[in-house]
UniProtKB/TrEMBL annotation:
Top-level lineage group: Eukaryota
Biased composition (Polar residues): 44-63
InterPro entries: MIX23, MIX23_fungal
Region (Disordered): 44-69
Segments forming a coiled coil: none
UniProt protein name: Caffeine-induced death protein 2
Pfam families, alphabetized: MIX23 (PF09774)
Segments passing through the bilayer: none
């Protein structure tokens, strides 16, 4: 079965390191969602005894058209798919809380204060330069993080919907549960689409 990437320890430093946060999300998505067809194909005829030369003597239908054992589908969902999604949800929710919290350790806070002070002291004559009154203040790192979380949640929603449609098709689900309903049925919690991403 697919091996999930190890989730790093949740901390504000992890959230503010957008590279580390994105790396975990990318690795998790590539291990499970980007390779969903291959992962499901591996459930059709798992190799327990190694290669059987007689298996090439007759043509078999493509694995995409062969049904997957319902037990294997359930096991894949509960052991691989939903835990991967849950780990990503927990990380996004944690970082959304960090983004919504005060940030006394922001290294650029003093620089922003200086820029705002200079802007207040500036004399603006819009007749000479109509654009001189505009100020584009530097965003705080919590604002940048909140924007990143909103973006990644949007990506996550698209990826999960696509993955779930493949799972439903390959596992021959007759019910029309959404992935959120199915996660909840198996005891997983998902609130990745909640609007707790801060500003």
């Amino acid at each position: 079965m697919t091996e999930l990437p190890r989730r790093p320890r949740l901390s504000p430093q992890l959230c503010f390191s957008s590279g580390a946060l994105r790396d975990f999300l990318r690795f998790s998505r590539s291990a499970v969602d980007d390779t969903i067809t291959e992962n499901l194909n591996a459930l059709v005829t798992p190799s327990h005894t190694g290669f059987d030369p007689s298996s090439t003597s007759q043509r078999t239908p493509a694995s995409g058209s062969r049904p997957i054992d319902p037990k294997a589908c359930k096991s894949f969902k509960t052991m691989v798919l939903f835990p991967a999604w849950q780990a990503r949800t927990e990380m996004l929710n944690y970082c959304a809380l960090v983004a919504a919290s005060p940030d006394p350790n922001d290294p650029e806070a003093i620089l922003r204060d200086v820029e705002e002070q200079k802007d207040r002291e500036r004399i603006v004559d819009e007749r000479l330069d109509p654009y001189s009154g505009r100020l584009f203040p530097r965003e705080s790192r919590t604002q940048i993080l909140a924007s990143l979380i909103r973006q990644e949640r949007g990506v996550e929603e698209i990826i999960r919907n696509r993955t779930w449609s493949v799972v439903q098709e390959r596992c021959n689900y007759s019910c029309h549960n959404t992935w959120k309903e199915d996660m909840w049925t198996y005891g997983f919690d998902d609130s990745s689409t909640s609007n707790s991403s801060g500003r």
